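Minutes, methods subgroup
Present: GH (chair), OT, SY

1. OT presented the first of two proteins processed in the latest run. Sequence and structure tokens recorded below as shown on screen.
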Amino acid sequence: MTNVVQLHGPVAEAGNLQTFAVEADRSRLTAPAVKAVLRLIDAWDGSNAEGAALLGVSESTWDRMKAGRWEGVLSQDQLTRASALVGVFKGLHLLFADGMADRWPRLPNRGPIFDRLSPIQAMITGGIPRMLETRQYIDALRGGL
């Protein structure tokens, strides 16, 4: 049987691949993504403004999310942001066996992609591209590159 993937609409016979472009996938993934980002921002001791900026929502939407009063669906970009943040969080917890995993995102960093900013600030100013680079940077550190 041949695996077929449609670029528009549902995925067919491709091992149930998900895509953030399909409304049904975004709807299904929104609640766990929001829950994960709320928890990791809390673990990183991030402010409401930082959490909102990292997820790409307004501060009032962030406040509603924190209070459990938001019933929206994240966009493709917002789910990409959430995925990158979860990847950074997970990678840091695999890299560091102590509290450094949650302190690291707040520390000024001399790494080539951070320009002496904290990773949180670098990801806020650099948007999705910097978030993905940060995730790749952590993965490279874990791999010994």
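2. SY then presented the second protein from the same run.
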Amino acid sequence: MSTPDSTTVQAAGCVLWRRSPTDGALEVCLVHRPKYDDWSHPKGKLKRAEDALAGALREVAEETGYGAEPGSELPAVHYYAHGRPKRVRYWAAEATDGGFTPNTEVDRILWLSPAAARDRLTQHRDRTLVDSLLSALRLA
């Protein structure tokens, strides 16, 4: 097993989903970060020696207030942030319990249909993760 490049920022997150409490339809959670004024999946940098899945679930809890049951690992996303390469590993994760409270990092969340979530995401690279979620859940 190879070790990640030490110059690459390692991060992890989840494509968080649930069944709508009103009609049972699939909903995807997006977070709004006021610092960047963007809509994204919950994610963040890993702490030193932190397991990627543990970090992904920690970020979901910190950013959304929800616990999550992880499912399939989804494709990683690679991009440059502040001049450094960044790798974000993602998992499909079903929201289990909890509730959102606005904080300095995330001021709003939305539960949207997959199509609406795809349209709302700020970064195009995040949109394919919605399709990956549907495939992982065998709904594509």
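Chair's summary of item 2: The chain has one domain: 9-136.
Next meeting: continue with the remaining queue.
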